[in-house]
Amino acid sequence: MQNNYKKILITGASTGIGRQLALDYAKGGAALWLLARSESKLYDLAEEVRNAGGEAQILVCDATLEPVLMGALQFAQAASGGFDLVIVNAGWGGKMKYPGAKNIQVLNQVIDLNFKAATQTLEFFARHMVEARHGHLVGISSVAGFRGLPGGAAYSATKAGLITYLESLRFSLQPFGVKVTDIRPGFVRTPMTDQNKVPMPFLMEVDRASSKIIRAIARGRKRFTFPWQMAIFVHLMKALPDVLYDWAATKSYGDMAVSGRKGKSEENSAG
Ligand SMILES: NC(=O)c1ccc[n+]([C@@H]2O[C@H](COP(=O)([O-])OP(=O)(O)OC[C@H]3O[C@@H](n4cnc5c(N)ncnc54)[C@H](OP(=O)(O)O)[C@@H]3O)[C@@H](O)[C@H]2O)c1
C-alpha cells in the first residue's frame, strides 16, 4: 500500500475505521499516535501496530473535554516533532427521539465530538503545519452531511458543518502547501453501524474502506465520497428538488425520524 506519511495521528483510533487505518499505515512502517478514550483497546492496538511493523504511542483522551484534548495534542506535537498526516476521525451518531428527555444531552455530545473536537483538532494542527509549511489534514465526515437525514438531526448537521469547514479550511492552508482532504464514507461495518436496524445499502467492510481512504489521501484528493454507488445516490439526492426530497424521506423514514434510529444508543460510552 502506497504511503509517504511517516508520522501520523489518528483520533477515534480504538475501533472501526480509525483502528483499521492505524493497522494499515503500520504495515508501511509509520509512527502512529492513537487517540481515543478506551485505554485497553488502544493498548492492544498499539501492540498490533508494532507487530505489523509500525511504531505506536497512545493518547487516552476524551476529545470533548477541550483542555484535556489540547493537552494531549500539545504533548503529541512536542514529542513527535510534528506530523505529516492527521486524521480527524472520532465521531458518534447519537439517538434522538420525539419527545425525548435526553435529546439535549445527546445533541451536545454529538456537537462536542463531531464538530467542536474535530475542528479544534484541525485548527491546532493547521497552525503547526502552516508554520512548518508541511502536512496533510484529513477529516472523516459522512454522506449523512449531504442533506438532513430523517432520525439524524444532530449527526447530519455536524457532518454538514464539518464538510463545509474542511472546504473553507483548504483555501486557507493551500498557500502554505498544507493539504486538506474531506473523506465522506457511506455505510461501513464498524461498531457504529453493527447494531443498525435500518437498511444499509452498499455496506462496505472496514478493511476495504480503509484501503480506499488511504488511496484517496495518498492521491491528495480534496474530497472523496465512497462507495461510488453511494456517491452517485447522495449527489442525486442533493440535487433533488426540496419537495421531492421531503416526500421520499418522509415516506421511507418518517417513523424513524420520530422514534429515533433503531439500534442506536443515547449514550456515547467508552468501551
Ligand atoms: N461506519 C460508518 O458507516 C460511517 C459512515 C460515515 C462516516 N463515518 C464516520 O467515521 C468515523 C469513524 O466511525 P466508525 O464507524 O469507525 O465508528 P466507531 O467504531 O464507533 O469509532 C468511533 C471512534 O471514536 C472514538 N470516540 C468516541 N467518542 C470519543 C470521545 N469523546 N473522545 C475521543 N474519542 C472518542 C471511539 O473510541 P472510544 O470509545 O474509545 O473513545 C472510537 O475509536 C466517525 O466520524 C463516523 O461518523 C462512519
Q: How would you portray this structure in words?
A:
The protein has 271 residues and is α/β, with parallel strands linked by helices. The protein has a single domain, classed as Rossmann fold. The protein has eight helices and seven strands; from the N terminus they run βαβαβαβαβαβαβαα. Strands 3-2-1-4-5-6-7 form a seven-stranded parallel sheet, with helices on both faces. α1 packs parallel to α2. The radius of gyration is 18 Å and the shape is globular. The protein starts with 6 loop residues before the first strand and ends in a 12-residue tail after the last helix. The relative contact order is 0.14. The mean pLDDT is 95. The site of NADP nicotinamide-adenine-dinucleotide phosphate (NAP) has 31 residues, from α1.
Q: Could you name the CATH homologous superfamily?
A: NAD(P)-binding Rossmann-like Domain
Under CATH at level 1, the class stands as Alpha Beta
Percentage of residues in strands:
5-15%
Number of domains: 1
Our count of helices gives 8
Rg (C-alpha, Å) = 18 Å
Which stretches are poorly predicted, pLDDT < 50 over at least 5 residues?
A: none
- Helical residue percent band: 40-55%
Main sheet attributes: strand count, strand direction, barrel closure: 7 strands, parallel
- Annotation, overall tally of beta strands: 7
User: What is the correct CATH architecture?
Assistant: 3-Layer(aba) Sandwich
